[in-house]
Write a structure and sequence with these properties.
Blueprint lengths: L23 H49 L1
Length: about 70
């Protein structure tokens, strides 16, 4: 009787469709990218608020100049 060769079967521990993590380095890079994106969005929001504030100041200054010119006429 001949010996039957052993067959090895790889068993996956992850559910189908789940990609195993590439490791801590990939997780760190993903977090750094997410934090950088959030920081840039925050900086953009601050710049937009500052721009609105400066435009409002400019508008008020122009109104004040118009009032001063009317009084002198």
């Amino acid at each position: 009787m001949a010996a039957t060769p052993a067959v090895s079967v790889a068993v996956r521990s992850e559910p189908q469709g789940v990609v195993p993590s590439a490791g801590p380095a990939a997780d760190t890079a993903a977090w750094q990218t997410a934090l950088y994106t959030q920081q840039m969005a925050h900086q953009l929001a601050l710049a937009e608020l500052r721009n609105q504030h400066l435009q409002e100041q400019q508008r008020l200054m122009q109104q004040m100049m118009d009032l001063m010119q009317r009084k002198t006429l």
